[in-house]
Fold this sequence. Notes:
Layout: E1 2-7, H1 13-22, E2 27-32, H2 44-59, E3 65-68, H3 71-76, H4 78-85, E4 91-92, H5 98-103, E5 108-112, H6 120-129, E6 135-139, H7 143-148, H8 152-164, E7 172-175, H9 184-191, E8 200-202, H10 205-218, E9 239-243, E10 246-248, H11 258-265
Parallel strand pairs: 1-2, 1-3, 2-9, 3-4, 5-6, 5-7, 7-8
Antiparallel strand pairs: 9-10
Helix pairs in contact: 1-10, 1-11, 8-9
Amino acid sequence: xxxxxxxxxxxxxxxxxxxxxxxxxxxxxxxxxxxxxxxxxxxxxxxxxxxxxxxxxxxxxxxxxxxxxxxxxxxxxxxxxxxxxxxxxxxxxxxxxxxxxxxxxxxxxxxxxxxxxxxxxxxxxxxxxxxxxxxxxxxxxxxxxxxxxxxxxxxxxxxxxxxxxxxxxxxxxxxxxxxxxxxxxxxxxxxxxxxxxxxxxxxxxxxxxxxxxxxxxxxxxxxxxxxxxxxxxxxxxxxxxxxxxxxxxxxxxxxxxxxxxxxxxxxxxxx
Length: 271
């Protein structure tokens, strides 16, 4: 089994690590666009063009599923990607976990990029899945870029600024950008420094990984289970990294995060 993930940069690490936990034997293809990062400020057409280019590079490696591990790209590029590749290649997008956050009750904050905050897309998700809930949209300028560059001081500053805009009584925070999942515990500590009451963080990586495996299993002729490797398969799958279509090592910035280190530490040659 081989699963490809597409994002502008290291935001795809969380979903890749989630796939690795569910299927350690799966080969992973990580296709990034460092020359075009960040995607958020780009026009929808420009973003779609860049996401399509990253997807083409990944698709050349013949994956069984393609994960769009970026909230903004899922908003703008998912229809074009699905039109290009489905039904042969299942394409799975990333949606902020607003529904489960609202279902838990209590005030909820949604941390997202400035481009996503207040957008018709996000407002539509709130209307569909959190009607009547106490929801605060919190823009996080600079946070995704700081995470991408593993800039510790900039991450701390952006997280602190967003935490200051977050109502004190929130029960849960939705991480509306895949980059934010890489600094989830820093967000938790900033929003709830005393730890009381516990703060629930809602991320998308686990659900996206599980959906990709379900889509693969639903393909004609496929019956592989979502859980671990069989005795006939290697314990750990391979890893291919594509930076603007060229094979490369994981960027140094990726190794600043536990997800990146885990991926780099346990790989076998890609088959």
